[in-house]
Model the fold of this input.
Amino acid sequence: MPIRVLSDQLASQIAAGEVVERPASVVKELIENALDAGAKTVNVEIRGGGRQLIQIADDGCGIPADEVETAFLRHATSKLATADDLESVSTLGFRGEALAAVAAVSQVTAVSRAEGQQAGVRLTLEGAKRVSRETVGAPQGTVIAVANLFYNVPARLKFLKSVTTEKRLIDEYVTRYALAYPDVRFRLSHDSRITFQSSGSGRLTDVVTAVYGPDTAKQLLALDDRDVPDAEAQDAGQSETPDDGKIHVSGYAGPPSLHYSNRKQIILFVNGRWIRDNSLTYAVIQAYHTLLPTGRYPMAIVFLDVPAESVDVNVHPAKTEVRFRQANSAFGAVQRAVRKTIVGDSPVPHTHFASLQSSGWSTAPERGAFGRRDEDVGQSSLNLDWKPPAAVVNGESQASSPQPNLGGQGLPIMRVVGQVGAAYIIAEGPEGLYLIDQHAAHERILFEQFMDRWQADQGDEGIVAQGLVSGVAVHVTPNQATLLNEQLDLLAHIGFQVEPFGPDAFMVRTIPALLSKLDPARALLDVIDELEHDEKPLFSAIEARLILRVCKSAAVKAGQSLSMREMEAMVRQLEECDSPHTCPHGRPTLIHLSASQLAKEFGRT
Ligand code: ADP
Ligand code: MG
Done:
């Protein structure tokens, strides 16, 4: 075939495909137009999952009578004038493509009356061709009705999912925009049944409740991106850190106890625009590191506010991807804000001192918090170097009331009663009975102590390492040797000094001092195993994962009987943790049976 320029009609249909992929994308574009028009009310009516009809009515500024036809032309927009405007887009739309794209693949009726005009216009189009136009009486605002979507593009129609799926996708867009615009009243109906409404009260909590229901809504934690030093700096009249000072993060994050099988519950907005962004999604997931069970994902509604010129929204016709001028700052800002919120300024661990002293525990644990029992069998990994926080010594602490079971909060004061099955510690607390998984709890303790120490030591040569009297040789496969050779620096950084020792063998010279009871060979093999399971890890991510793995090796196993003193020390140390409710892999460390549950079980109520 010779080269020809495509007919206008065909070109529009091809272009339309990028903007209007399915009913939900029409809904998205029309809502964006309503919001750009300053609407305070947006009514969305859907029939047949959007295939039969999508109608969106708003009370925005309306389209002037003499511009109604123009609005449906390709690349016609009132939102951009010059190339410079593209540098700092402050409206949701700007490409002038949506109405043209929608019109090219459906039968559209638009009724609009602009602010200040006496009468409105009704325009009907079929496949972008004008069918009729008349002057009509209409309230200020715009109603766009899109009927028989893809009636002239059968190929598209074939690719639509079931009506249920299309409905769900539409619901997602409507609720996202309701979240981003709490001061706008949204109403959505499917086949004349109202399925969602927001009040337009301006309060995000109201929308969150409308979208997620009161049970979930009341568990959510408000994001706070103000660092303490920054707040102080601001008080002192200084601006924030120049690095990411202009990125503001707000919204909500779910507690770690709320988790889902996929990442769809993480939703992101940049300057009021819903976006997809793998990197920022990962920033949220990272913030929950070690707090969620493996394979589970958190929920979060994150709003980023950045200066319009520091983000490029012109990446794709659907405008759901953006590029940040400082992607790392955005990542860091999101991760920090979420982490800080969920870990919380946990009710100071020192509050447990009163009980700690009365339980007869010595505050001078020269040999580590866990005293050695005489009948200790084999190797104990409990010999930890743990110092009580300063506040204890000063006796400044007071007991606080028990906290609800949120990942980011402390444990109540517990008294150890005994051990069951050489695996669980039984403890009593103000709110009933607690069963603690000794392995999971110890893993959590080691992990947090390790991370604390690691962060403290990082400035120097990495974590404090303890030399082994005689090195321990470990044999590995050639593949493993290659892997290990690449990561020797990193291992040294976390306290493992490992040297090549002949072909396919390595000598472990030091191990992290904090884990002095670790079996060096076993630990190295675990580390290799962890490296093998990683495809393309980030440098810092490997370190954290290795630490996690090492803590798992070092933690006391089920099957090891513990003395009262060891158990008491473990419970105290667990109470000191920032996230005591889960092990670093996300399994629970303890099970709580409340007094009322017990009473119920015994038929006392
Ligand atoms: P864009 O939103 O990128 O400008 P669209 O094709 O979506 O492109 O819309 C074209 C133009 O039509 C807009 O720039 C706007 O001036 C006008 N318009 C569309 N929808 C509305 C609406 N609901 N209220 C007022 N004006 C609208
Ligand atoms: Mg638009």
